[in-house]
Write a structure and sequence with these properties.
heterodimer; A: 353 residues; 12 strands; B: 511 residues; alpha/beta; four-stranded mixed β-sheet
């Protein structure tokens, strides 16, 4: 006996059947099984291919395949937590495919969004905020794209904390391809991959705004780490406003092209500017534990180096001239400081604290 | 009548003996060359004829047959013009055959009878000496390279007439006997146009190049366009140790065969730097073609091979270099011939951090998509990167640096340190068959690169904190060994290890 839930899952794997469409069909047909019948009889127009495909035990085949790939599905017929219920409501969803621990959706979470091409500053902002939030137990939600998204997920994995990646395509088509490894690491670290698309569905450009609405719905707040003038992250922000979520905007200096989107947002909603992750934690009702600065004792030369980097990032050549330390020694000093997490190396041999 | 003349041909890096025979018979006038001669030799007919006539000698209007023995090896090039002309004149009776018996001849003829420069004189002379011949006549333009082979009577001739007179007339001016040159007297003259003293700033890159020179390490420089990568690359040979005479001979032989030897000195005194363009084919790099000529990697033997914009080279081209980089020789096999050319060089590569070149720049926004960057970097295969010990990021230079009049440390000073470090390596590696830290085997690494507890701990920390890949381990040890040598230190200390870790940019999260 095939349940209505199983019929719905089968419907989800048909490319023409989006949540929206099935929703409207349900108004006429009431039950997924009847929609299924209507497709076979031709009452609901689909391609010939689809019609052929869904005959002959299609539902069982779909379930078996999902089981083989260890992909789970949560549908409106399932019991779910409060937050997930809200997500389904707000996004008009009927199903979500997922791999990993679904329960973490219920935990306190922040969506981190931003450019696919951040500069070093953007990456640093993202790293610092993510690491504080993740350490405090906040689940980080992001989109598994390159740039800010990848940085956020990676920091979580390094901290061994949980993170949710919302995908814009099916699990067979992880985009970008080279983040496949990252996706696996997320699951291994007890995180969650989630998407409304069936495994075989490819990532399309128009999926991303839809993906962003799920991110905004899951999270308690959205943190805009760094975005350019035109960024997909704007969608997430708009959805977040619609859903009544908090928005946090990272600051940047006025001339930073990679942060142009942030600057525009700051003009628009100055109350959302955030300079310290402590405020986000406070608004989430979490304690901000100031990390005990375990600065080890620096020797004289190391102190000189640190003093010179204090007021902003410096190129290695500048450091050589400022500190008057020979390059060979300076290189080995910097390695020590870098391993102990006191200084950070940026692309192009720039260094900062 | 019949005449027999000695000459030499080239097979790879070695010469071999060739008998040039001319036979003159009554009959319809004609000229035939037998003995697997190529087109250049067949065409010698017209050159020889005109040269003899224009030298004021008689060209016999009879049936002439030329044989190049041994008959079963292919011969190529115009080097047999002079021997053929002499053989014809001897067969005709103009020259006494007894007089020319102990001479060998090499040279291309011009229509007016003058002698032109030919390829491969140095390797031929080395063979001549080995085979026990004493006297050889070569074109005047080749006399410089000949002057470095001692124990031979080498005569340099300007034209055919002089050669004939030398044998025929007793009162004619003698041919010039080539004076032996002293390698030591010319090698000290520095002919490099570049010097590190004109490179201001760029401290890491300069330091990395110094280490590369000291340990023979392959190195890659990553930096935006206009950051001075090419300029610094040109400086690398200036800090390499001086060529020894044997090394100079090896390199000169290859250059002589390829026909790119400069006639002024006749020997390579400066370490070569070869920079083939990135459109070069695999054969252009490794060597090959019908006659298995040496390629760029062999021309860079004992010097530097500079590959500018490394990811722009064809992937196949780069992969073909993996084996020669490891072995220091390349075996070029072609239908007619199989040759082994030496190819021991320092590989110096440069690349941009991304296709547009501005990634990580403070002033210009990078325009590349993530996948474009990924694709760009993935051109560098793991096995190739395994052979590159040092990665260094080169920053854009500021106006202040350009405008400053301060001269940096000169190549001469750096070279002193490099020489000292090489000396230490030579002592340590004596009898192992290798010369520099870059070629240390795993077993030798264990012996020569022992770490103290503190350094072990540092390295372990670096691996966990800086997400270095596993292949970085042996590279860091080798480079640390060289840094210690530059420091004059017997053991590898913590500071050496920590500096070496800095040269593994591409192993950490570069993307």
């Amino acid at each position: 006996m095939i349940t209505q839930r199983e019929y719905l899952i089968a419907l989800a794997t048909i490319e023409e059947m989006t949540s929206n469409k099935v929703n409207s069909l349900l108004k006429t047909y009431i039950e997924p099984s009847k929609i299924f019948g209507a497709i076979i009889s031709g009452e609901v127009a689909t391609s010939e291919q689809t019609k052929k495909m869904i005959q002959n035990n299609y539902v069982q085949k779909v379930l078996k395949r999902l089981e083989q790939k260890k992909i789970s599905v949560v549908t409106i017929y399932d019991d779910m937590g409060e937050r997930l219920k809200d997500v389904f409501m707000q996004c008009g969803l009927l199903w979500l495919f997922y791999i990993g621990d679904l329960n973490i959706v219920e935990q306190k979470s922040i969506a981190i969004v931003g450019s696919r091409k951040p500069d070093e500053y953007g990456k640093k902002i993202c790293t610092d905020f993510t690491s504080v939030l993740a350490t405090a137990g906040v689940v980080i939600v992001s989109g598994l794209a390159t740039g800010i998204d990848s940085v956020a997920h990676k920091v979580c994995i390094e901290n061994n904390s949980k993170t949710i990646a919302v995908l814009g395509g099916g699990f067979d088509n992880i985009y970008p391809v080279f983040n496949k490894g990252l996706a696996e690491q997320i699951v291994d670290a007890g995180g969650l991959l989630i998407t409304e698309y069936a495994p075989h569905i490819k990532c399309e450009a128009y999926h991303f705004p839809l993906r962003n609405r799920i991110m905004a719905a899951i999270a308690d707040g959205v943190f805009v780490a760094q975005m350019g003038e035109k960024s997909g992250a704007l969608h997430t922000k708009n959805y977040a406003i619609d859903f009544g979520k908090n928005i946090y905007i990272a600051v940047a200096d006025s001339y930073r092209t990679a942060s142009q989107g942030n600057l525009n947002l700051i003009e628009e909603m100055p109350q959302c500017v955030v300079t310290n992750p402590a405020r986000i934690l406070l608004e989430l009702g979490l304690e901000f534990e100031k990390k005990e600065q375990q600065m080890r004792i620096l020797n004289e030369q190391e102190q000189t180096v640190v003093d010179n980097i204090k007021d902003g990032e410096k190129h290695f050549d500048e450091l050589v001239e400022l500190t008057k330390i020979v390059p060979a020694t300076l290189l080995s000093l910097l390695t020590g400081l870098k391993i102990d997490g006191i200084v950070v190396q940026l692309a192009g041999n720039y260094w900062c604290l | 009548m019949l005449a027999k003349i000695k000459s030499f041909g080239l097979s790879g890096l070695d010469g071999y003996e060739i008998d040039v025979e001319a036979d003159i018979n009554a009959g319809l006038p004609g000229y035939d060359v037998v003995g697997l001669a190529d087109t250049a030799i067949k065409e010698s007919k017209e050159r020889v004829k005109s040269a003899i006539k224009n030298s004021g000698l008689d060209y016999p209007i009879v049936k002439i047959t030329i044989n190049l023995a041994p008959a079963d090896t292919k011969k190529e090039g115009p080097v047999y013009d002079l021997p053929i002309a002499i053989a014809i004149l001897a067969a005709k009776g103009d020259i006494d055959q007894n007089k020319i018996g102990e001479f060998a001849f090499l040279g291309e003829l011009s229509l007016d009878g003058s002698l032109r420069k030919v390829r491969g004189v140095m390797p031929i002379l080395i063979t001549t000496k080995q085979l026990g011949y004493k006297k050889i006549i070569i074109p005047d333009a080749n006399k410089k390279e000949a002057s470095f082979i001692d124990g031979l009577e080498v005569y340099a001739a300007k034209n055919l007439r002089d050669v004939v007179d030398f044998f025929v007339k007793s009162d004619a001016p003698k041919l010039e006997l080539v004076e032996p040159s002293k390698f030591d007297s010319i090698k000290s003259i520095n002919k490099y146009k570049s010097d590190f003293k004109y490179v201001s700033g760029q401290y890491v890159a300069k330091r990395a190049l110094e280490i590369a020179a000291a340990g023979g390490h392959n190195i890659i420089m990553i930096g935006p366009p206009g950051s001075g990568k090419t300029m610094m690359a040109k400086c690398l040979p200036t800090i390499l140790p001086d060529l020894s005479f044997d090394e100079a001979l090896e390199t000169t032989k290859i250059h002589s065969i390829a026909g790119v030897l400069d006639g002024k000195d006749g020997i390579i005194t400066n370490r070569p730097i070869r920079s083939p363009h990135h459109t070069a084919s695999a054969v252009a790099l490794t060597g090959g073609g019908k006659n298995a000529r040496p390629g760029e990697i062999s021309l860079a033997h004992n010097g530097v091979l500079f590959l500018d914009e490394l990811p722009e080279y064809g992937r196949y081209v780069l992969e073909t270099m993996r084996q020669p980089i490891e072995d220091g020789v390349i075996t070029v096999a072609r239908q007619a011939i199989t040759v082994e050319y030496p190819a021991r060089f320092i590989l110096l590569a440069s690349m941009n951090p991304c296709p547009c070149g501005h990634r990580g720049s403070k002033t210009t926004q990078c325009r590349c998509s993530a996948s474009a960057i990924h694709k760009y970097l993935s051109k560098l295969s793991g096995p190739l990167m395994d052979r590159i010990d040092l990665h260094v990021e080169v920053g854009a230079i500021s106006y202040n640096d350009l405008a400053s009049d301060n001269l940096a440390e000169s190549s001469e000073q750096i070279k002193k340190r490099v020489n000292a470090a090489r000396m230490l390596q030579r002592e340590r590696l004596e009898g192992t068959g290798i010369y520099s830290n870059s070629s240390l085997t795993t077993k030798q690494l264990k012996n020569f690169c022992k770490l103290n507890k503190e350094s072990e701990q540092l390295l372990a920390n670096a691996f966990s904190k800086l997400s270095l890949s596993a292949r970085a381990h042996s590279k860091i040890l080798k480079v640390a060994r060289t840094i210690a040598d530059l420091d004059g230190s017997k053991d590898i200390q913590t500071k050496h290890i920590s500096e070496a870790i800095q040269y593994r940019t591409l192993d950490t999260n570069f993307i």
